Amino acid sequence: MTRSSDNPLRFAAPWIDEEEVEAVVEVLRSGWLTTGPRTVEFERRFGEELGAPAALALSSGTAALHLALIGAGVGADDVVITTPLTFCSTVHVIEHLRARPVLVDVDPDSLNLSPAALAAAIDRLDRPPAAIVPVHLAGRPVDLAGIHALAEPTGAAVIEDAAHAHGATVDGRPVGAPSGSGVRQGACFSFYVTKNITTGEGGMLTGDEDLVEEARRWSLHGMSRDAWKRYGADGSWRYDVTVPGFKYNMSDMQAALGLVQLGRAGQLLERRRRIAEAYDAAFADLPHLRPVSRADAAGHAWHLYLVLVDPEHSPVSRDELIAALTRDGIGTSVHFIPIHELEYYRRRYGFVPGDFPVTATAFERIVSLPIYPRMSDDDVADVIEAVTRAVGAS
Ligand SMILES: Cc1ncc(COP(=O)(O)O)c(C=O)c1O
Questions:
Q1: 350 CA distance to ligand 1 centroid (A)?
Q2: Phi and psi dihedrals of 258, rounded to 5?
Q3: What angle do CA 57, 17, 372 make, to 5 degrees?
Q4: Average pLDDT rounded to a whole number, residues 122-150
Q5: Letter string b/e over residues 256-269, b meaning 16 or more CB atoms within 10 A of that residue's CB
Q6: Span 1-11, mean pLDDT?
Q7: What residues flank ligand 1, with Cβ below 6 Å?
Q8: If exposure means fewest CB atoms within 10 Å of the residue's CB, which of 291, 317, 329, 385 is most exposed?
Q9: In this predicted model, what pLDDT tens digit does every residue of 13-66 receive, in sequence order?
Q10: Distance from Cα 64 to the centre of ligand 1, integer Å
Q11: How far apart are CA 134 and CA 138, in angstroms?
Q12: What's the pLDDT at 154?
C-alpha cells in the first residue's frame, strides 16, 4: 500500500494540465470573462461531436435539467417521472416548477429506471406524464428504447439526466444524440468538478431544437437572444425581456476550460475504462461484492464505479467497508441517499424508507470506489488491496 490515512487517496479529482490553465488565463487576459465567443464555440463543438440538433451551455447540470423541463413545457401540477436513486437536484427542479414528481423504482441489475416499473406507474397515473427523466446512473446508459416506447403514446418528453454520462453510448449512438423516435428529447450534462469532463461548475443541454431554444430564452433573464453581447463592441444596449428568466449562463472562463477538456475526453474516458477493467478483474472472484456493471457493459461512461456489498457473503456491512477503507486512506462515496429518504421529500410526500424496495436495498449495500484518470496504477492497486482485505478475502 502506498496510501494511508496520512496520505489519503481522494475519492475524485479533476484532470487539469497546463493547457487548461493557459486557456483560462487567455480568457482572463482577453478582458471578456462572461458568456462570449468561447461559450458559443463550446456549444458548437459539444453539440457537433454528439450529433445533437442543438446545444446550450449553462452554469450547472441542475440548470440544464430545470430549463429542459421548461423547454418541454412542464408546468404546475404536471406529472414528471424519475427515480429515487439520483441526486436531489433531479427532483428539486420538478419541485421548482410546482410539478408533481412521481418516483419509479430502479431495475435491480442496472439500478437505472426500470421500464417494467415505469409501464406500471404510467398505468396508475390519473393523467399522462408531461416528462420522464431517466438517470444514466454512474454513466451506465439507461434502456432508452424501452423508455421511449413507453413515453411515445403518452406524449411525454424524455429528458435524460446525463450528468454522469458524457462519453456513454446507446446502441452505438452517443448519449445526447437524437434517438430517432418521435419523442421530444433533451439530455442534461454536468461539468461539476468530479465529472468526466469539467468546467469547475457548468452544464450543457442538448436536444430538439425547439426545446433547446425555449430553454435558451429562459437562460439569461429572458432577455432577447444575444443580449450577452450588449457590452461588446458590436453589441447594443437595447434588449427586450419576454419571460422572467434565470441567470444560468456559462462564462467564457468555464467554456475555455470545457473546450480543452472536450479535446481530452476520449483519453480521459479510456483511462476510466482501464481502471474499471482492473477492478472487475480483481473483484470477479469475490462473492462479497457485486459490481453494478462490468467493464464490458456497452457504452458505459465510467463516471462512477459502484459495487454492492452482499450481506450473505461479506462479513462487513457497507458502512464497515467504508470505515475500513477510510482507515486505509481510500476515499469513497455513496450514490445516492435515495430521494424518498431525504427529510424534505419525506415530509412533503409522506415517503417511508421501504417505499421503493429495490432502491432501498441498494442504498444499504452500495459504495462508490475511486475511479478517475489522475489515479496511478499504484492507486488502483491500493484500492483493490484495501477492499480485498476489508471484506476478509486476503
Ligand atoms: C445524477 C445527477 N444529476 C444532476 C446533477 C447536478 O449537476 P450539477 O452539480 O452540475 O448541478 C448531479 C451532480 O452533481 C448528478 O449526479
A1: 25
A2: -60, -40
A3: 75
A4: 97
A5: bbbbbbbebbeebb
A6: 89
A7: 60-62, 86-87, 89-90, 135, 161, 163-164, 190, 192, 203
A8: 317
A9: 999 999 999 999 999 999 999 999 999 999 999 999 999 999 999 999 999 999
A10: 10
A11: 12
A12: 97
